[in-house]
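Aim 2 progress update. The chain analyzed this quarter is reproduced below.
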Amino acid sequence: MPVPAERKGAKRELLRDSAYVSLRDAIVDGTLVPGEQLHDAELCDWLGLSRTPVREALHRLAEERLVESAPQRYTRVTRLTQQEAADTFAVVAVIHALATELAVPRLTHYDLAALESAQDAFVLALRSADPRGAFAADNRFHQVFVARADNAQVDSVLAHLTPAIDRLERLAIRALPAGRSVAQHQAIIERAAAGNATGAGTAVRANWLTLSALVEQSLAEPGRAPAWGRPR
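Predicted structure tokens:
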């Protein structure tokens, strides 16, 4: 059977993906604030799209726990809670630890250099009180292991959870990770360079749980505005 010349669904999928990216980014950076009600008509007007791709995007965001809804009642941006942070970071910590254990035996000299470079950028951002720079450098650091692990299931789980983690970092945390995270990164580098996959994985898990503790502590302080969140 020849492949049909007509393309079915491609445009709809592109529109859905466009709506998803726009809404996800607005939720992660705080443009759409936690608890904000989301109305189809307003979103369609803002995005310049019809209702179908917008609703499909909202369904995907609900699966990622960035949006919650009750039929005939509301659709809104999920609130930030300690329990949500603890649950999300617990899974992310384990997956990153697994990625690290898979990656260590495959690391090259270039990978180790990339870890050192990300660590230097992380330290510089902390000294400059630059939260966005610190989190960006931290992401580059851990991405070295994720990329070298080259595991599709790891990539899939992290793609699903990373938007929630980014949102918690941007909107909830009020104290930058400092000396402890720097020391943890250095321990990770040393263990990875020595080929100690299990030790490096353990250190990576501890590193993510350190960040989790900071986020949870911030969320336990009601009434205080985040130090940052909206794009500058």
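The chain has a mean pLDDT of 88. The longest strand covers residues 67-70. These observations will guide the mutagenesis experiments scheduled for the next reporting period.
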